[in-house]
Amino acid sequence: MNETFLRACRGEKTDYTPVWIMRQAGRYLPEYLKIREKVDFLTLCKTPLLAAEVTMQPVDILGVDAAILFSDILIPVEPMGIKLEFSETKGPVIHNPVKTSDEIKRLKNINPEKDLSFVIETIKILVGKIKVPLIGFAGAPFTVATYLIEGGTSKNFLHTKKMLYQSLKEFLQLMELITDNTISYLLSQIRAGVHAIQIFDTWAGILTPYDFSKYSLPFVKKIISAIGNSVPVIYFAFNANSMLELIKSSSAEVIGLDWRIEISNAIENLGKDVSIQGNLDPCILFGTDELIRQRVADILKGAEKARGHIFNLGHGILPQTSVEKAIFMVKAVHELSRR
Ligand code: CP3
Fold it and tell me: Is the CB–ligand 1 distance for residue 259 below 6 Å?
């Protein structure tokens, strides 16, 4: 297996900078769309042979140095008792959002090996044949909680913040339940064979630093401490660059960055105890080859002082992206970083 990605996570020397792309399996790939013509997104997630196939597509097509399990951060909420749908136009929709104490009490603890056996099976298929490390993942409890409370994506997260500021006891109850479930889910992914874990905290940036430090970060810390040294953990908190010191205190081995910060500044802030992942603006892939190559070079240079650097976009690749541009970026990272 090509271990370059894992070596960079741990801060060991590598021959070149490894690269993968958030949302690398998805709607910008014709091969993915072909499978999606026949099955809806949830069915795809729940069919191990197909989920394994789309997990591997970007490894073969783009030449990336890691694969990420094909699933979604909301997959583990279904067995908690949540009615989940992925709408073509609205994204995830939850038909029974939770707001009251009773609604929270009715949510269930999950048994991942039983309730999410399709995920475990997908991982087992993959680790048998994949030539690059496989990244497992989960949403950060706060990010998952926003979906459960709002019922989907939101603009100002008023329901979530109302619960936080008006019914703290209920909010914490919900966070604890999600955290316990996330720990057992991630530990079962690790037992099945994933080589690293990424925690997606897409909505961390809507919180004040005080609320983030008190009501989101402690739960992420609990997860990272439960994982211990078994596999490297990447913590990606989106739109949260003003809170880098707090994010570092999570004890994650790798900190993921969005594009809103100069990578060299982030490295100065974060120091030498962590590796860095990021942080090309996904929209740069709509520029000329020359522009892409220049911006890749800038990030590689900015990251020279990092303990370890994993190249990635600053958020998920957009469905409108041309596959050729993604391939071009991966090649540019490999060529320009060769040592
Ligand atoms: O390739 C990969 O990165 C692995 C699979 C993956 C998906 N979602 C597949 C997916 C991962 C790691 C996720 C994480 C995820 N899901 C996050 C965190 C990362 C981020 O983008 O901030 C969030 C917030 C979600 C929730 C979610 N799922 C949304 C908001 C949407 C709809 C909007 C969108 O981006 O498509 C989804 C659907 C989804 N998840 C798709 C895929 C491939 C599209 C489904 C389809 O129509 O085929």
Answer: no
Q: Is 7 annotated in the active site?
A: no
Catalytic-role residue among 23, 180, 211, 260: 23
Q: 92: Cβ below 6 Å to ligand 1? A: yes
Q: Which ligand 1 atom is nearest residue 137's CA?
A: 12
Beta strands in the chain, from DSSP E residues, in sequence order: 67-68, 84-87, 91-94, 134-139, 196-201, 233-237, 254-256, 275-280, 309-313
Task: Report how far Cα 56 is from the mean position of its chain's Cα atoms.
Answer: 17
The CB-side HSE value for 54 (13 A sphere, CA atoms) comes to 27
Tell me if residue 256 falls in helix, strand or coil.
Answer: strand
| Element at 140 (helix H, strand E) | none
Q: Whose CA is nearest to atom 38 of ligand 1?
A: 91
Instruction: Tell me if residue 339 is catalytic.
Output: no
Section 298-307 average pLDDT: 98
Q: How many angstroms separate the Cα of 333 from the Cα of each of 10, 17, 166, 292?
A: 19, 7, 48, 10
Strand, coil or helix: 104: helix
Q: Which long-range contacts (CB under 8 A, 24 or more apart) does 146-150 make?
A: 146/203, 146/206, 147/74, 147/77, 147/92, 147/94, 148/77, 148/82, 148/94, 148/97, 148/98, 148/174, 148/178, 149/97, 149/98, 149/99, 149/174, 150/97
Whether 337 is in the pocket of ligand 1, judged by its Cβ within 6 Å, is no
Length of the chain: 339
pLDDT tens digits, residue range 35-56? 999 999 999 999 999 999 999 9
Q: Which residue matches tokens 């099955």?
A: 39
Our answer to whether residue 23 is catalytic in this structure is yes
Q: Which helix (H) or strand (E) holds 258?
A: none
- Please report the pLDDT score of residue 138 as a whole number: 98
Q: Find, among 249, 301, 309, 312, the residue nearest to 279 by Cα.
A: 312
For residue 71, which atom of ligand 1 is closest to its CA? Answer: 5
Q: Whose CA is nearest to atom 8 of ligand 1?
A: 72
At 305 the pLDDT is 97
Distance 278 CA to ligand 1 centre (A): 18
